[in-house]
Amino acid sequence: MKEIESDSNPLFSEERKNEIVKLVNTRGKVLVPELVTHFNVSPATIRNDLRDLETLRLIKRAHGGAISIETPKVGFEQFHQEKMVENIDQKRLIAKAASKLIEEGDIIILDTGTTTLELAKILDDINITVLVNDIDIARHLEDYKNIQVVLIGGNLRKKFRSTIGPFALKMLSDINVDKVFLAANGFSFNRGCTTPDINQAEIKKKFVEISNDAILLCDSSKIGKNSFVQFAAPSEITTLITDQGIKQTDLEQISDLGTKVIVTKG
Description:
Blueprint: H1 10-27, E1 29-31, H2 32-39, H3 43-55, E2 60-62, E3 65-67, H4 80-84, H5 88-99, E4 107-110, H6 114-121, E5 128-132, H7 135-141, E6 147-151, E7 155-157, E8 162-164, H8 166-172, E9 177-182, E10 186-188, E11 192-195, H9 198-209, E12 211-217, E13 229-232, E14 239-242, H10 248-256, E15 260-263
Parallel strand pairs: 4-5, 4-9, 5-6, 9-12, 12-14, 14-15
Antiparallel strand pairs: 1-3, 2-3, 7-8, 10-11, 11-13
Helix pairs in contact: 2-3, 5-6, 6-7
């Protein structure tokens, strides 16, 4: 049974848990008194947080606190440069398949991510409008003569090279688009699309909300994985583009959701 929590604000609770995971991953071990002081909440609140995070397999509770676990953490996110070199061949094949879904006159969003960056590099120079919240993607698109680029403003996530926050959300609230090409840290059948950062999740949720089609670019290593925050239910994804590493059982289960699945070849 959970102890009575002193913090009743669910948004702050999720932000605090996200920060706890980062502290544990950075330090290897943290103690309850340290977290109580850091967040200015009661020991009962911290113990409940640690219990919840252990249930999600984000940390491991130890005497008096919590320690890091060796398996990949769902609250952990690599920096942009580290992601660039991971599964690059699969990402390029996925990007090539995604490019075939873009038509003359489309208004699209390219979500921040290394696979969507690969997509930006190979777009045809046709009459389309592309909304981006990623600095590197915007730079790659600036030399296209026929592509109109709309850069979404907001707070800069410096080591992730993307914009987030209330200004970005406000701008998006007045917009409708044909397609969004999404990136995710995990996709599972019970949680859908997930990402480690709460603020990034809010932007991604808005992308899905304002788009007619939500197209997820996701290599097979991320399928069946959960990260910290959900930004789209499985049913909200209209198309999944992945590589040949996807398990047949996963392929069938995704198709049963009504989602179109494109598996790259090569």
